[in-house]
C-alpha cells in the first residue's frame, strides 16, 4: 500500500469548476482507495492505494471527476517519497522565507530547460526560479499574486503539453506530512 497526494488543477477558483471536498473524498473512496483525506478547498486529496502507479491513478481520478462533475480537471498524483524529495531539494532557503514567498509548480513531465531559456531572469529580479525533478521552484518575495515571473512561467510556450499546478510552501510541506501518515 502506498500513500499518494492527488493535486487537482484549477478547481474551486473564482466561483467556477466547483468540486466540493466531501464529494471528492467520496469519489476517491468509490474508486477503491482508503485513508482518504482532503486538504483545503483548492484541490488536494490524500489516499492510500494498493494498485496502480502515479499516471494510471491520475488518469482514473481525472476520468471519474469529469464523469461526476461534467468538466475535465487536470490531475497529478505523487507519492510521499517524491513529495518529500521535492521539499528537501528546494534550492531556496525555505526556513528563512515566508511561505507565501515560495512556491512549487508540480509538472507531469520533466521540464525542458530549453523552454525556459527565453525568460529574461535578470528582468524579474529579485524573483527567481529553478528547475527540479518534475517541478519548478519559484521565489516571489511579494507573493504569487503580484509575480510577473509567475506569469512568464505559466505561458503556454513553457507549459505546452504538460500538466502544471502550483502550491505554496505551506501546502508543499503539509502534503509531505499527510502522505507520511501524520496528521
UniProtKB/TrEMBL annotation:
Top-rank lineage group of the source organism: Bacteria
Pfam families with a match to the protein in the record: DUF1697
Classification via PANTHER family: BLL4334 PROTEIN, DUF1697 DOMAIN-CONTAINING PROTEIN
Name of this chain's protein: DUF1697 domain-containing protein
Amino acid at each position: 500500500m502506498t500513500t499518494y497526494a492527488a493535486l487537482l488543477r484549477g478547481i474551486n477558483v473564482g466561483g467556477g469548476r466547483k468540486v466540493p471536498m466531501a464529494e471528492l473524498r467520496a469519489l476517491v473512496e468509490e474508486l477503491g482507495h482508503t485513508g482518504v483525506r482532503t486538504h483545503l478547498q483548492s484541490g488536494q486529496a490524500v489516499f492510500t492505494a494498493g494498485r496502480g502507479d502515479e499516471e494510471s491513478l491520475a488518469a482514473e481520478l481525472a476520468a471519474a471527476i469529469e464523469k461526476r462533475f461534467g468538466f475535465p480537471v487536470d490531475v497529478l498524483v505523487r507519492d510521499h517519497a517524491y513529495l518529500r524529495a521535492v521539499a528537501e531539494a528546494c534550492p531556496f532557503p525555505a526556513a528563512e522565507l515566508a511561505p507565501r514567498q515560495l512556491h512549487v509548480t508540480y509538472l507531469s513531465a520533466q521540464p525542458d530547460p530549453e523552454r525556459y531559456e527565453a525568460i529574461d531572469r535578470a528582468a524579474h529580479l529579485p524573483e527567481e526560479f529553478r528547475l527540479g525533478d518534475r517541478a519548478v521552484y519559484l521565489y516571489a518575495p511579494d507573493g504569487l499574486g503580484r509575480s510577473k515571473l509567475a506569469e512568464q512561467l505559466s505561458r503556454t510556450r513553457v507549459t505546452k503539453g504538460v500538466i502544471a499546478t502550483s502550491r505554496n510552501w505551506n501546502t508543499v510541506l503539509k502534503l509531505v506530512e499527510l502522505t507520511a501518515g501524520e496528521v
